[in-house]
Amino acid sequence: MTRAGEDVSAGGDLGAGGDLRSLPVPDGLDGIRLDAAIARMFGLSRTAAATLVDDGQASLDGRIRGRSDRVSGGAWLEVRLPAPPRPVTVEPTPVAGLGILYDDDDIVVVDKPPGVAAHPAPGFTGPTVIGALAAAGYRISTSGAAERQGVVHRLDVGTSGAMVVAKSERAYTLLKRAFRERQVDKRYRAVVQGHPDPLSGTVDAPTDRHPRRPGLFAVVADGKPSVTHYDLVEAFRSASLLSIRLETGRTHQIRVHMSALRHPCVGDLAYGADPTLAERLGLTRQWLHAARLSFDHPGHGGPVEFTSPDPADLAEAVERLREQA
């Protein structure tokens, strides 16, 4: 991988494969970040553009730059765009342990087990909620991208609990709007390391992709607004059981915010949890569960609420914490 600042005009290159594009930076983009300029010039997402820069696939006037470097109007930009990704398809695959909490003509509410993604995605080869519903013969809304039709919100692969999927087109439109306008009450249960101070509080800190660790997220100054409310339910010697309400729904939001407080979810090794504590409690994933989901039904308009009890592995970990206390 070419490093930022390296001169590629004298013997270097931007790597192999993909489509090499060369053109001047428009004057209208003068002064903006390199990743933002690439995103706007080539129709990429900001994340995809940042990844290209981090991988040394972009140069300005013959030199590799960092993603936050500013561009100048007229500077010569070279970018090697990645080959088009292979299309992601939904494979109907039964998923053991995936329960149905509710089902009607508009929605289906599932109780998602850990290890299952909401929908297919590049690089993920495991089971998905959409694939499981397809295998069970459920008709899902056709709105949205082909691989995520009917999906109006997501849970992390390692997070269990209640998740709603739209079956009708009207339900998809109304639920997407409800989630976007924060009209859905999402309650989680989490066991975190230590004891937060204060024991009830709010984390209001913007989050976005981690600047150095691909696949993870972090609190960053220019991230998306993210607000998490938490309350202590039960304190143990080395951990705390919290009830958490999300005001926003960013990717990995609870995990990032709890880690930022230095109280990561127990078992969440990616975000700094103690592996010895996880092993002692028999956990192979983060202690995080989507326990309750409330919203106005997109069909009849009345309020509905769905709950999911703690699954066996999380309940067992809590019992071990009580015994240790």
TrEMBL record:
Q: Give every Pseudouridine synthase RsuA/RluA-like domain span.
A: 106-260
* Catalytic residues in the record: 156
- Mind telling me what this protein is named? Pseudouridine synthase
An MF annotation (GO) of this entry: lyase activity
Q: Which InterPro entries match?
A: PsdUridine_synth_cat_dom_sf, PsdUridine_synth_RluA-like_CS, PsdUridine_synth_RluC/D, PsdUridine_synth_RsuA/RluA, RluA_PseudoU_synthase, S4_RNA-bd_sf
Whichever gene encodes this chain, its name is rluD
Q: What is its EC number?
A: 5.4.99.-
Q: What is the superkingdom listed in this entry's lineage? A: Bacteria
Q: Could you say which enzyme class this protein belongs to?
A: isomerase
PANTHER family (UniProt xref): MITOCHONDRIAL RNA PSEUDOURIDINE SYNTHASE (PTHR21600), RIBOSOMAL LARGE SUBUNIT PSEUDOURIDINE SYNTHASE D (PTHR21600:SF44)
Instruction: Tell me the organism's taxonomic lineage.
Output: Bacteria, Bacillati, Actinomycetota, Actinomycetes, Frankiales
A GO BP entry is: enzyme-directed rRNA pseudouridine synthesis
Which terms are listed as keywords in the entry? Answer: Isomerase, Lyase, RNA-binding
By sequence similarity, the record places it as follows: Belongs to the pseudouridine synthase RluA family.
